[in-house]
Amino acid sequence: MLDPQLERIARTLGPSRFPRKLALELCADCNLACSMCHHPEMRRPKGVMPFLLWKKCADEVARVDPDTEVWFSFCGEPLMEPDLLVAFLRYGRQVGLRSLNVNTNGQLLVPEVAGPLLTSGVGTIVIGIDGFSSPVYASVRVNGDRDVVYRNVEHLLELRRAMDDGPEIQVQFIEMDENEHEMRAFAEYWLERGATVKVRNKLSWGGRLDTPAHQAADDRIPCPWALTMMHVFWDGRVPRCSGDVEGEDFQDNAWHAPLTEIWGRLAPYRQLHLDRRFDELPDRCHDCRDWMSGAAERVRDGQLDRLERRRRKRPLPVPVSGAGRALVSVKSPPSQIVRRADVRPPAP
User: Domains of the chain (ranges plus CATH)?
Assistant: First the structure.
């Protein structure tokens, strides 16, 4: 039986001349090695997006569709470059972008960063925490410190409460076997402090990680990620979708072509999804379970009981192969972080 949420999502999917969401990889490095992320196995070079590349993208989004959701996320931690992140956000607001958003693990969200971030023009700040107790947090957010991130986010919420207007603060809980028993305590804690709680399913990152699947293959819907979202790596490369984390399946670059043109060149791939010709999709799509992940659920004060009732009605998980964390395990060679000053637009 198809999850009602996925059924609702499927009805919203169709052709589009521009992505509804644009995720930009400001920094491809990360200070954590989280259990539900492919980053520890990432092989491609790590670096930092030059401001000129962001300016090129932002100017086009402002011209074509300023309501596009722009997310500074994907692979890496944007607060490893806090001054650049604030500069990106301020420029986006300056040219008229209406939805500027940040995903962070919160470890580097120190007071001297929190203030400028809150007044940068950002609309939503999502902090991935995923654990309530220290042992659970440590098992999921590897190399992180639970007390540090809790202290940082509590301070951020204090600053936000003192503002007349400002971004929504969301704390994210990716539901997994390791932490699902803490979901209610986590939500109650943060709702009491004025945050929105964002609950979502674990991704497989294009079939790279094991994840609790909860839909039969016969119920497959067109992938919402592929149909609504474009990603831009720090060096301008555009992957086919969020599952193509190494940029192996598609060759195009935002330095060389407008985002509109690149999105258009991906249209035949999106049409395969819309026509439900799933067997004709690239091999990676055959193992990917991310189409099952559904939309994140955002819980605000007074809504926690309703969330739990909905989640109890979900279809039971379908057994998946592989007992370990990774379905694809690749040793990453040591990589140098490419600084902004060293980056030049690649030759077409």
Answer: 20-340 (3.20.20.70)
